[in-house]
Amino acid sequence: xxxxxxxxxxxxxxxxxxxxxxxxxxxxxxxxxxxxxxxxxxxxxxxxxxxxxxxxxxxxxxxxxxxxxxxxxxxxxxxxxxxxxxxxxxxxxxxxxxxxxxxxxxxxxxxxxxxxxxxxxxxxxxxxxxxxxxxxxxxxxxxxxxxxxxxxxxxxxxxxxxxxxxxxxxxxxxxxxxxxxxxxxxxxxxxxxxxxxxxxxxxxxxxxxxxxxxxxxxxxxxxxxxxxxxxxxxxxxxxxxxxxxxxxxxxxxxxxxxxxxxxxxxxxxxxxxxxxxxxxxxxxxxxxxxxxxxxxxxxxxxxxxxxxxxxxxxxxxxxxxxxxxxxxxxxxxxxxxxxxxxxxxxxxxxxxxxxxxxxxxxxxxxxxxxxxxxxxxxxxxxxxxxxxxxxxxxxxxxxxxxxxxxxxxxxxxxxxxxxxxxxxxxxxxxxxxxxxxxxx
Length: 440
Description:
This protein has 440 residues and is α/β, with parallel strands linked by helices. The protein folds into 2 domains: 229 residues, Sandwich (Immunoglobulin-like), CATH 2.60.40.680; 147 residues, 3-Layer(aba) Sandwich (Rossmann fold), CATH 3.40.50.10140. The protein is 16% helix and 30% strand. The chain contains 7 helices and 24 strands. The strands form 3 sheets. The protein has a 17-stranded mixed sheet that branches. A 5-stranded parallel sheet has the order 19-18-20-21-22, with helices on both faces. It has a two-stranded antiparallel ribbon with strand order 23-24.
């Protein structure tokens, strides 16, 4: 259904709130849709379209004090005719309840990782608030509810931030203008009737984009109402209405398998011994640690443009491991006049990424020192002294623990929860009538 531009709400003057007030209109079957003219929610070449919001009913066990929603988000990649699409683009959301301390978390999302073409699929919400493929409307003795459909998807798509209050989808390879869709299972504290949503976008802009053919990518913010204006929330007594997302029983908890971070290994071909050491290290990360690792030696066997390959690998990686070695230090410091062209190209690309978005790439570029090597072999632009590097004592999981904890997001120590009450300390006895050495 198409929204209308109704102007500011009653009692509010234009410009009184830096956030756009996005109302909701009730569609058939009590589904709620985001109502706003597309031009109001545009970030660069990304334009928000309708959001379909379904409260999750009944509330599953284990989620007392929380409200859940299944949200279908639609967005467009809008390009002017004749403008080539970017190599990749990314759309991100930050979600919060205005004026509340309770967290907002995206417990699950689709797409998460798309590595090959996928047919149109409908999804339902499990009792663990995870998204599962739907298989019809349940039928006699069935246990799956009719789901919410997503269109066919083409590789490659990666999701970041599932489990927190921020989520990003990155589309790489085969990017085309048009409509895209995603599903989120969102959990808020009970009674949160409104979300503050921040939208950001990033693009790999080619020469045409740099000449101003792409619009600005300044982030946008807006508010979206989760419940009806009269304040009807997810009361347990309401039950599942036609517009609600019913919980489907799967009979088993979701898979404990973690997301497998994508890692690119960048190294110089100092000599055959060093190349074999890097290969063994990469195999350890794949076979023993379950990481999605990519290195040049696994892509040999056909003619390819290695420069384009490096761009693709570096921009798609969640982490880029730069392996320290004497030649790596020379190339990184610009002291190699010729030869080792592959590493010179990779280092140039890595420096460009770091310069263009330092806050992001400082956390993605991980200098690694393999057994027998030294931190003195890390290029200076990676700050071997001022920033972290990862020294492996041996090619084992234990020897690579520090690196693995960073890649998998498993810190060795977790900050305890803050006590709800500040410590109360009794006053000391009055010092009246006493001096520095006791009573006078």
